[in-house]
């Protein structure tokens, strides 16, 4: 018989997993982590040059400030790992974590569905096992079964499984005489190995998101000053806005999106008719803000010169959590010819390199695909078949109430699937809310109402941005937190004066329990 280790199993020990473990620590959860350390993407999905895309104070736990939080520099991935390590030590979280323990299957072993006859989602800890989890010891390869009442999925949307483009038959990587790898494999290389891979080589980096941009800069830096140094070609399909830093025409970035007054301009789910009308009347201001930022970005960076100016408004990228910080040196390397941009909607391999949709061919020694990750597959692979259809809407978005509970899946929570501009805070506040739900200090609405709320969030995203596959709440994150505060019995208005309530940015510190109002 499968042993019962704990009432609650948390899968994954990245930012979300440790946030959930901390908030649920009074239940002595067991945390299964596939690797030998905490930190998730910051350990396994980062290059030498990977940095946080915001100042550290925007990426901190409410009850554990960064030691040097006033430092406005964006911390490196090593500094983030150090911070997460000290968080785990401070709250003694490692005692819950089983490292090198990869969950390979989850089986539903109860006969109770998520919703009883009353149409209500049941309690999360029903007093009997609901899930059987198969866990592989990654060192010995042995599998052990465990039974738990509840599972918290924190395996992350990024990392672990590479998303690769599809190619016409016979025109894929097998055709290419050089080396092909995904950015995930590049992250596994040591400093010297990574240098050797790109030094003096003709490198193509596929993609134009954060991983691709950082990789191109790293490749250019390796070849800087080298006589035999070659350029790095970025193969770009879709464009998104990038920002150089957190100031726009002398104004801090938060001024436009992270205050109550700025978010008031944006549509939010289930708003009143009056609010809809106000949003409509104020929409020229909203569009003006987007244009204002676009004008700054095109003035500050040679986006037009390199054909990197997107056609769509900045706001659509912000509303879909697609904004990436452009490293300061990117355009210097481009001006020096060390980074070359090649736009192509389709491409495939030939023996010597890449063939583009305009018929041209380029020779390469190394092709690195920074084409993203397959988070859906990661989840599907371990999920019981009878629940897989509930995991994603056809649009690609995961249906999660408060970004945490899937109304159709019993005794399970998800942390780390809803995105915003500060994902640590997003995961933490949901973990606080989840712990109260587990302890029955708050009650979920009927399933029908939860589904309505989720659908409404999806509709808002669809109306706001064409990139609505990700569940992103960045334009109404304060309202999302307000609703969770109300459900937890907290005062959603967290500031001391009406002025700061309206004009100062909301961050994790506003939700510190010791300042709970
Ligand atoms: C390159 C990059 C840069 C980013 N920059 C920012 C940024 O600047 N700001 C920001 O807010 N967000 C950023 N993000 C988003 C980032 O993903 C989140 O901030 C956050 O770190 C996600 O944490 P997580 O715990 O949800 O997922 P992950 O960090 O992916 O952690 C998941 C954990 O689960 C483990 N796991 C996976 N499968 C299993 C299994 N089957 N069994 C057991 N364990 C398993 C993994 O080993 C991993 O440790 C960035 C992401 C990437 C990839």
UniProtKB/TrEMBL annotation:
Cofactor(s) it depends on: FAD
Binding-site residues, FAD: 16, 33-34
Superkingdom: Eukaryota
E.C. number(s) listed in UniProt: 1.-.-.-
Keyword field contains DNA-binding: no
Coiled coil: none
InterPro entries documented for this protein: FAD/NAD-bd_sf, Flavin_amine_oxidase, Flavin_mOase, Flavin_mOase-like, FMO-like
Keywords per UniProt: FAD, Flavoprotein, Monooxygenase, NADP, Oxidoreductase
Family: Belongs to the FMO family.
Protein name: Flavin-containing monooxygenase
Source organism of this protein record: Cucurbita maxima
Taxonomic lineage of the native organism: Eukaryota, Viridiplantae, Streptophyta, Embryophyta, Tracheophyta
